[in-house]
Specification:
The complex is a heterodimer of chains A (148) and B (511). Chain A has 148 residues and is mainly α. Chain A is 39% helix and 0% strand. Chain A contains seven helices and no strands. The radius of gyration of chain A is 15 Å and the shape is globular. The N and C termini of chain A lie far apart (47 Å). Chain B is of the alpha/beta class and 511 residues long. Helices cover 30% and strands 19% of the residues of chain B. Chain B is built from 16 helices and 22 strands. In chain B, the strands form five sheets. In chain B, strands 1, 2, 3, 8, 9, 10, 11, 21 and 22 form a nine-stranded mixed β-sheet that branches. In chain B, strands 4-7-6-5 form a four-stranded mixed β-sheet. In chain B, helix 5 packs antiparallel against helix 6. Chain B is globular and about 75 Å long. Classes of the chains: A mainly alpha (148), B alpha/beta (511). Chains A and B meet through helix 3 of A and strand 12 of B.
């Protein structure tokens, strides 16, 4: 385990709530996350769009683009120059579970984060937001035809 | 008084009693003035203290320090820049700015004034509008001199430029009735950077210049209470630095520039219930109303607290503008080409929060988007009306009337421009939900402290509160409901931030 990774895990272990569950059940962290509803998450994610877009063709904004964010190593996207040192040095991979833990109180887990968000303290809302992002972040790179 | 800290003493002597056990996020609601007699010693002393590092705070800092004052800016978050840094960074400027002139665009301060007064809300602070318009040319030059990057490029496209153009029609100038009340001109001045990062470019420039000018910045420091002398003069501020309370003395005065309160949900529900119902709070995390509450606690008057920015951005794409927007009675109520916040204001404040965009095959969204859901689809307008549960025949009447005139290129009711006017015909017809709680409906607050054009804060008796100034969304300024153009808010922040900075430093301002 690298130093950076240990740092992050130690941060996680200090968190109340969701992260306590992570500490207790390292094998299945997803058990801490309620089932999310992407339909409910649509407008919860909308507030994130002050800075982040999930559509690849829009590119980076004040925050990095979130196209195919899950599975990426944090803090490494080409063309985005505004990561904090903490994220530049990070070695973890974004998973829905990790994002769920992070968004409870973003500044608490990563005090140097430059994401100026109050987070989403409500567990169900957080799960809904992530469920939406899981769908929205894997659309094709170009605009898709409207299907409604 | 000595500069040495006595935080322990401070805490024991009523702070905790006064604040109770409230958590930091709700503390502002319980804030009250603190007598300076309770401060045994000041932890920090400066000439000018500015709370908030957005466009208002930094503009104030630049002018106060240019006037020779020692300036300290405090910021509650780690990263300076406030909501301004997350915004489009548009400055509403006109009257013949250097950028307008370089692009051969004609404008006058009178046309700009007429637009703001006639298109905006009723009973505005017209002295502020007048000063803002009269000095807009100089103000834009000042921004340029601070290093804000503008390019000599104009675009006709509606909406914030996605390219690097620096000038566009940022508001409702070309929509009816505004275009008949004031000569339109493009007045949205935006940093020439691609994408929606103009606010970041603006704040990077202002912050860089402030630092070079010797303005000190202390982050992760939140204002909690103003400290007041026995004669009512504001002498300092009690702040919270990582959970530790410190007292800051400001010899010449304080500028509150802490932003609005869209993220303080309890305060929002009390003061601005219509905004509370909008789906998406749109601001940086620091917009918690702390500065407004600190001001109210020392007797400041607060104005237009229920007003704000509420937007339903139906375009781009521009093809949808040839659809029609209807309310729960199946009737049109606004021109579909209106600026997003003009339409949003109508929906949120005047239509009970409910509206739909009705499209035909050509005006439908062609590409996937998450802002508005199709909630009805049919081969006739009647099908769609039934699915929406609109009053019998109402939408059919609306469309028949609209089509009858649109086919001849007129819109008697709302004078929609011919570019966007044609009969609604050709299935499938769809209804897209524009309701405040179902659509992407972004909002932030415009209500705040009553200030004079100098930035001086006024109490409920119409008197100045000595030592207290404010700017930006901490105040009630140029932006009112309806919000009529992008750039009026950040324009107001920068211009009246400068006024407050000059005033607090003791330099006279034109008023």
């Amino acid at each position: 385990m690298t130093a950076a990774c240990r740092l992050i895990l130690s941060c996680l272990l200090l968190l109340p709530g969701a992260t306590v569950v992570i500490a207790q059940e390292p094998e299945s962290p997803s058990s801490a996350m309620p089932a999310g509803d992407p339909a409910r998450g649509r407008l919860l994610f909308a507030a994130c769009r002050t800075c982040h877009y999930a559509e690849k063709y829009i590119g980076h904004n004040n925050g990095p683009n979130l196209h195919r964010i899950f599975g990426k190593v944090a803090g490494k996207q080409a063309g985005f120059d505004y990561y904090s040192e903490q994220f530049k040095q990070a070695e973890f991979v974004w998973t829905p579970e990790f994002m769920y833990a992070w968004l409870e109180n973003p500044q608490k887990m990563f005090p140097e984060s430059l994401m100026m968000s109050l987070g989403v303290p409500d567990p169900q809302q957080r799960a809904d937001l992530i469920a939406f992002l899981q769908q929205a972040s894997v659309r094709s790179a170009d605009p898709e035809p409207e299907t409604q | 008084m000595s500069e040495k800290s006595d935080i322990q003493g401070l805490s024991r002597r009523g702070l905790l009693a006064g604040l109770g056990a409230t958590a930091a996020t709700t503390l502002a609601a319980g804030a009250a003035a603190m007598p300076s007699a309770e401060v045994k010693s000041w932890d920090i002393t400066t000439d000018v203290l500015i709370a908030g590092s957005g466009a208002a705070g930094i503009s104030a800092a630049l002018e106060a320090s240019a006037a020779g004052a020692k300036v300290l800016v405090i910021e509650s978050l780690l990263k300076p820049g406030g909501s301004s840094a997350l915004s489009g960074g548009v400055i509403y400027a006109g009257g013949g700015t250097s950028l307008q002139r370089s692009l051969n665009i004609k404008d006058s301060p009178e046309a700009m004034y007429n637009f703001i007064v006639s298109a905006g809300g009723v009973h505005q602070q017209e002295d502020k509008i007048q000063l803002y318009c009269e000095q807009s040319v100089d103000h834009f030059d000042w921004l340029f001199d601070q290093g804000v990057p503008y390019l000599q490029k104009f675009t006709k496209a509606k909406g914030l430029p996605m390219g690097d153009e620096s000038l566009y029609f940022s508001g409702n100038e070309l929509a009816w009735p505004a275009r008949e009340q004031a000569t339109p001109a493009p007045r949205g001045h935006v940093p020439g950077v691609p994408g929606m990062n103009g606010g970041r470019a603006l704040m990077e420039a202002l912050l860089r210049t402030a630092e070079a000018q010797g303005v000190r910045m202390q982050v992760l420091t939140s204002g909690e209470r103003l400290i007041v002398e026995s004669d009512g003069r504001v002498a300092g501020m009690l702040v919270n630095v990582n959970g530790v309370r410190k007292s800051i003395r400001a010899r010449r005065g304080i500028v509150l520039a802490c932003g609005g309160f869209i993220h303080n949900r309890e305060m929002l529900q009390r003061y601005a219930p219509k905004l509370y119902d909008c789906s998406v709070p749109w601001a940086s995390a620091g917009d918690l109303g702390a500065g407004i509450n600190m001001g109210i606690a020392v007797g400041a008057e607060a104005l237009r607290m229920h007003e704000g920015f509420a937007i339903a951005p139906i375009y781009p794409p521009e093809n949808v503008i040839s659809g029609i927007v209807v309310n729960a009675s199946g009737q049109r109520f606004v021109s579909e080409e209106s600026y997003h916040a003009v339409m949003g204001n109508s929906i949120a404040y005047h239509q009970g929060g409910k509206a739909w965009l009705i499209t035909d095959n050509r005006s439908s969204y062609q590409f996937k988007q998450d802002n508005f859901l199709a909630v009805a689809k049919g081969n006739s307008i009647g099908d769609v009306a039934n699915q929406l549960g609109l009053p019998k025949g109402a939408l059919q009447n609306t469309v028949a009337y609209y089509n009858r005139y649109a086919q001849n290129g007129t819109d008697p009711m709302f004078q929609k421009s011919r570019d966007f006017l044609r009969p609604l015909q050709g299935p499938p017809y769809k209804a897209w939900d524009l309701s405040v709680d179902q659509a992407f409906f972004a909002s932030h607050t415009f209500g705040g402290l009553h200030t004079r054009t100098s930035g001086q804060v006024v109490n409920s008796f119409g008197e100045n509160i000595p030592g207290l100034f404010a700017a930006g969304r901490n105040t009630a300024g140029l932006p009112v409901a309806p919000y009529i153009a992008s750039g009026i808010s950040v324009g107001d922040c920068t211009f009246f931030g400068r006024q407050a900075g000059k005033s607090v430093a003791g330099k006279g301002v034109s008023a």
